[in-house]
Amino acid sequence: MKLLLTSGGVTNPSIHSTLVQLLGKPIAECHALCVPTAQWGHPMCGPTSVRGFVAAEPEWQHLSGLGWASLGVLELTALPTIGAERWIPWVREADVLLVDGGDATYLCHWMRESGLADLLPSLPDTVWVGVSAGSMVMTPRIGTYFVEWPSAPDDRTLGVVDFSIFPHLDAFPTNTLPDAERWAAEIGVPAYAIDEQTAIKVVDGSVEVVSEGKWTKFGS
């Protein structure tokens, strides 16, 4: 897939331009599927925040509210019970998957259980836009610092990319650069701390940081 890994979504013209480049056509011509699953694994999320995301309410203007041609919902926890013959065509017909934040280990669990993780290599033209946990799930580890799902066996995630992500840099009192430095010292892989104005584009293994804000890379 083509990956646009963000902390806060498509928050500025640079990230917006990168998204359009990845899509290959205007956002208004693209069909999107919203993936809210990560929210269920985080204690700060729930029915109201899931509704806000899928209804493209103002707080989600930088993800579901960008002006897509259509918005659908892909709830991963439902997929194992309905059969791949139904849901795989929905994914293949979408131009983009909009994957919201929450808990990345919970999202990882359901990506594997649903079969979506296995499907990803066969979607070379599909764009994955992640926010927070929706981005972190593609990394090898998120660090125990970010695990909120009580049933998570550890902090490992999909490992589609070879670096980890510390999101929301300076957005919260516990997400400062010193916090990121301590996190990076324990993570054991190259890593990026990114703020809400930063995204990481990954296409065919090539990594590019797109930013109008602050970011730091740890490791080689």
TrEMBL record:
Keywords: Hydrolase, Protease, Serine protease
Top-rank taxon: Bacteria
Gene3D superfamilies: 3.40.50.880
Family of the protein in this entry: Belongs to the peptidase S51 family.
Descriptive protein name: Type 1 glutamine amidotransferase-like domain-containing protein
